[in-house]
Amino acid sequence: MTLFEKLENIDMPKIPSFEQGYAMDIQTFWTNFIEPRLPNIEIVEKWNNLLQEYSDVSNAVFPIRAFYNWDKDFVENEKDDELRRGFYTKFLNENFSYFFTDNYFVAYIEKMALDNFCPTLNEFKEMMISRKFPARFGQSCSTERKKAAYIITGKNPGINTSGYKIAHIIDTGTNYLLSDGVTYSLKELSEKFDFSRGKYSEWQEANDNFGKLFLRISNASNSLETRKVLKAHFLRLANPLNYFLTPKMKKDGTVYNEYRNNKGEIKYDIAEYKNLQNFVHEKFLEKYGAMYSDYLKLVKLPNDFFGKSNANEKICIHYGNPLDKNKYITRLPDDGILSRKRTETLNNKRTIKRGEPYTENEIIICTYIARYGATAEINEASVHKICHRSICSIKMKIQNIASMLDEEGVNRFTTTNALTGLTTGQTGRRTNWEWVKPLCSLSKAEFKMRCKEIIENI
């Protein structure tokens, strides 16, 4: 079967879904859920070799997972100043180029690996360069489709519809260690090496060897470092050595997994749990050996990126497609916390005690309000619903966050008064800054989408 034929039939055979299940700890979740759904080692090795060889092809086209926004309201409004999926950019004085995409690009490679299929290097290269390899599938809007040079309406491989999420061990959007000794986020790199979002109008009609398209031309310099960054990002994004399947996150009120993190908090997206990612990293070292160790040297990772993992950490994860809470398997840890937390979840509320610290989700919404102001959807009442905290307390927390943002020189687009609680000239407490700081790099649309996800999951 050719690569073209495989992509035309990427939804077959269908990926088996999964039954209702439970795992007390990380080791059990790995054994019962993750490891049985990994591609076989031989096919992973083939894909690893193929993707590394392709990344060294002189005229390679690299996918960049950036500037996507799949928020339903956003797409339906067809705002052409944000979405960039399938948009293609060439460098003026270089052979290599890139296009923007999202995590759906990875689904094609994961599905082929699960089907024990790997194309030849020539097939893969030809389809990537000729723009025949789909950038993604799923919902899109007309303004996006108009200028997308790569296919953004490909056939759905069926991973998500079978209840799974592709979980990356190494995040594609953060922690790139460059030769200058500085660690950058992808957003910072996009500005440094000119693969930024840009304006919609920058993509102009053009022609190449494969037909008409909309194209942006970049005058970026420092081409050697640019290519190394694009290669590292590509290998993080696409290589099966960097991801595994988990139950997908809670969506539109439907739960697919519910677990407890090491703070005792109930969460609904196990794919993003750092302690699990650290554990899978260690298991991949055991499973793939030198192949995995050599791979890690190519993705510009800081030496201290991975933390220690605990195979026996109690995550008490329930899962299903979707999760049926009436079929929970009742197994409680010795400390009984799951029983308390599960009751709170089923009652869909949690009331805090006076003086109890703010949760991360509360801080996220408060930070949005501090920076952009309250809206009909995102406001103090939204924060109140999370832990039933007093509105007065919430308003003071928002003012405190506004003060921290001002001290850091972060632009705010609201008239919210900053409050330090100290005399004029003194700086305020930096409570929860470790949660606020990463939010400052989000665009308004990305930030809004994150807040809406939290509110939908209350």
User: How do the strands line up in the largest sheet?
Assistant: 2-4-3-9-8
- Major sheet summary line: 5 strands, mixed
What's the SSE pattern? Answer: HEHHEHEEHHHEEEHEEHEEEHHEHHHHHH
Count of DSSP strands: 13
What share of the residues does DSSP label as strand, in percent? 5-15%
The pLDDT mean sits at: 88
Measured on Cα atoms, how large is the radius of gyration?
23 Å
- Shape designation: globular
Instruction: Please give the share of residues in helix.
Output: 25-40%
Q: How many H/I helical runs?
A: 17
In whole angstroms, the N-to-C terminal distance is 47 Å
Secondary structure category: alpha+beta
- pLDDT < 50 runs, ≥5 residues: 329-349
Provide tags for this entry.
458 residues; single chain; alpha+beta; globular; five-stranded mixed sheet
Please give the structural blueprint.
Layout: H1 3-8, E1 21-25, H2 26-34, H3 41-55, E2 61-65, H4 72-77, E3 88-91, E4 97-101, H5 104-114, H6 121-129, H7 142-147, E5 164-168, E6 176-177, E7 183-184, H8 186-192, E8 204-208, E9 211-218, H9 223-238, E10 243-247, E11 257-260, E12 266-267, H10 274-288, H11 290-296, E13 314-319, H12 337-347, H13 360-372, H14 380-387, H15 391-407, H16 433-439, H17 444-456
Helix pairs in contact: 13-14, 13-15, 13-17
What can you see in these coordinates?
It contains 17 helices and 13 strands. By secondary structure, the chain is of the alpha+beta class. It has a five-stranded mixed beta sheet with strand order 2-4-3-9-8. The chain has a four-stranded antiparallel beta sheet with strand order 1-13-11-12. A hairpin with a 2-residue loop joins strand 8 and strand 9. Helix 13 runs antiparallel to helix 14 and helix 13 packs across helix 15. The longest helix has 17 residues. The radius of gyration is 23 Å and the shape is globular. About 5% of the residues have low confidence.
